[in-house]
Design goal:
alpha+beta, Porin, 2 domains, 16-stranded antiparallel barrel, two-stranded antiparallel sheet, disordered N terminus
């Protein structure tokens, strides 16, 4: 108590000094004024440190934090944001199925300075679309249904998607991730884009990630996450390639991997049944995901020539793709047997230029790509393997941002989805995208695209089965043109 009285006496003396200082302020010079303020601040900090050091004494009451002390503590690690990380982790066109590695590298590079990092992004678009077939628009960045696209001309001004994500650093080795998605245009709910069934928020991804690249090249994750199959990236600013639409997977499962010195190895045990995207392996002839009986593996290597130039080559395999259903094809229905798939891909960066190419295919024919009814005139087409092909390039120019990205990009990409036999109404759907991006900052992208699509081959009832006369709504001669403008911002 004697120590406490001494400290409190010092605090009283400080108050008296402060009062005397205020009373004499008009009689001193500015230099003297500043010197006294600094001296009094030092004395105040020393007194607070001594009092707080005695907090174990039951007779001592801890003085409250100053606003500056509270702000410093918050900056040190409770809740924060990282705009560069947020843009990358929520971007839908790059690092599509390597988000866990993006997180591990962000921790390694010190981009996540808080125990909990809050991220978000909003993508707003305006477009004009035309088709030579009423109600048939082959552009895949929205679910192509006649409930939402009527006639030969449509236009939109809306929010395409919005995400909110939380990245928690539980300790040096464990990261927890949770991401929510609002995407009325690509939601599988019924009705139009204003129907409440489509205007819902879904848990898009959620997993626990184990890894610390500072100490080990090994990592593991378990939960709902992207599957390690193919590249599935695009050089376009907004529109995903048909490879992504056809083969990019999202599923429950457990993933392990190795990443070091340009080598990346990944394997994932995938829950069976029909998964969220691109995987379907039957469980006792049902689509019930009650057994881990699917898997995917991926290996790639990046040759780095210098800090700016590199070439990546990779290959993937999965035990069960989505193309195993029999006629008539309906989303997420059971399969009688699995249909494996493989992918090969490459990405080359040379200075301001980037090129990518990818090919993915099933190993077996897709049963639903043929009509089994001999009385149906469409039965003349045989079942085919399903494949997708993408090739694209872009050129970056203008100022280089702190994250290494150029201010502006011009891009061109061609991708193809092969769904059926030659000449069949559902034979293929080809897509050409010409794009321009301008980054106002690391986390704000303004973009424009021109898109041309040949063919209309939606997965549901792709070869028919939904019309009494045996016809199909797929149309090999349908053509869609889109002029798109948009903005994507992350925080």
């Amino acid at each position: 108590m004697r120590t406490m009285r001494k400290l409190l006496g010092g605090a009283v003396s400080f108050t008296a000094l402060l009062a005397a200082f205020v009373g004499q302020a008009s009689a001193v010079t500015n230099e003297e004024l500043l010197e006294r303020i600094e001296r009094l601040e030092r004395q105040n900090q020393e007194l607070r440190s001594q009092v707080n050091a005695l907090q174990g004494d039951p007779d001592v009451v801890r003085l409250p934090e100053t606003s500056a002390e509270a702000a410093a503590k918050n900056d040190a690690g409770l809740v924060g944001t990282s705009v560069d990380y947020s843009y990358r982790i929520l971007d839908a066109v790059e690092d599509v199925n390597t988000k866990p590695i993006v997180q591990l590298k962000a921790r390694q590079d010190g981009l996540l300075n808080s125990a909990l990092t809050v991220s978000g992004q909003v993508t707003a678009i305006a477009n004009i679309q035309t088709s030579n077939r009423d109600d048939k628009f082959g552009y895949l960045m929205r679910n192509p249904t006649s409930a939402n696209q009527i006639g030969g001309d449509v236009s939109e001004a809306l929010v395409h998607s919005a995400n909110l994500a939380f990245t928690a650093q539980l300790n040096d080795w464990i990261t927890a991730y949770l991401e929510f998605l609002y995407s009325p245009e690509q939601h599988f709910g019924s009705g139009t884009i204003t129907n409440l069934n489509r205007n819902v928020i879904d848990g898009r991804r959620a997993y626990i990630l184990f890894g610390n690249l500072e100490k080990s090249p090994l990592f593991a994750a378990i939960g709902k996450l992207d599957t390690p199959f193919g590249l599935n990236d695009t050089v376009s600013p907004f529109t995903n390639s048909t490879n992504w639409h056809a083969f990019a997977g999202l599923a429950y499962g457990a993933q392990v991997g190795y990443v070091s010195d340009g080598l990346m190895l990944r394997a994932m045990a995938i829950q069976g049944g029909s998964q969220f995207r691109a995987h379907n392996t039957p469980v006792n002839d049902t689509n019930v995901p009650s057994r881990v009986n699917n898997f995917a593996v991926d290996a790639n290597y990046t040759f780095r020539f210098n800090t700016a130039d590199e070439a990546l080559f990779g290959a993937s395999y999965t035990h069960g793709t989505a193309y195993c259903q029999a006629y008539p094809v309906v989303h997420f229905n059971p399969c009688s047997d699995n249909n494996p798939g493989y992918a090969v891909y490459s990405r080359i960066r040379m200075g301001a230029f980037e090129l990518l190419g990818e090919f993915a295919s099933t190993t077996d024919d897709w049963p639903g790509s043929a009509v089994p009814d001999p009385t149906n005139p469409l039965s003349v087409y045989e079942a085919q393997k399903t494949h997708a092909f993408t090739v694209g390039g872009r050129y970056g120019f203008g100022e280089v941002l702190p994250n290494g990205r150029n201010k502006s990009y011009l891009s061109a990409e061609f991708s193809k989805f092969r769904a059926g036999d030659e000449g069949a109404p559902w034979e293929r759907q080809n897509q050409i995208v010409l794009g321009y991006s301008h980054y106002l900052s690391e986390n704000i992208n303004l973009f424009g695209e021109y898109i041309h699509v040949d063919g209309f081959a939606p997965l549901n009832f792709v070869s028919g089965g939904n019309f009494p006369d045996g016809s199909t709504w797929s149309d090999n001669d349908a053509k869609t043109d889109v002029l798109m403008f948009g903005a994507q911002g992350a925080f």
